[in-house]
# Entry
Amino acid sequence: MTQAKEPLSEREVADRLASVPGWRREGETITRGFRIRYHGGVALIVHVADVERLIGHHADIDLRWDRVRFAITTHDAGYRLTEADFDLARRIDAIAGAHGAEPL
# Structure
């Protein structure tokens, strides 16, 4: 099994991507957007940021009036995808669901 911060092979990326429906690959980044009103998006981001601080891994986040978009890659692995990215994607999905965010 690949360590959390070790870059995944193309096959491993494809396998992990299949395990996180709604996330899509854009180069060496995985992305997903959710529809949520602005203030709900702020609360969602704070919740995600708190978890990110605890696990030591973070997403790039883009907040708009009615949506939020997350983009994840591992900077410490040369901006490549790692197991940590897919773990964070699953955590974001759970948090977004708890906040009532709708997948885009």
Q: What stands out?
A: The beta strands are 24-26, 29-35, 60-64, 67-72, 102-103. The longest helix spans residues 38-55. The mean pLDDT is 96. The two ends are 32 Å apart (CA to CA).
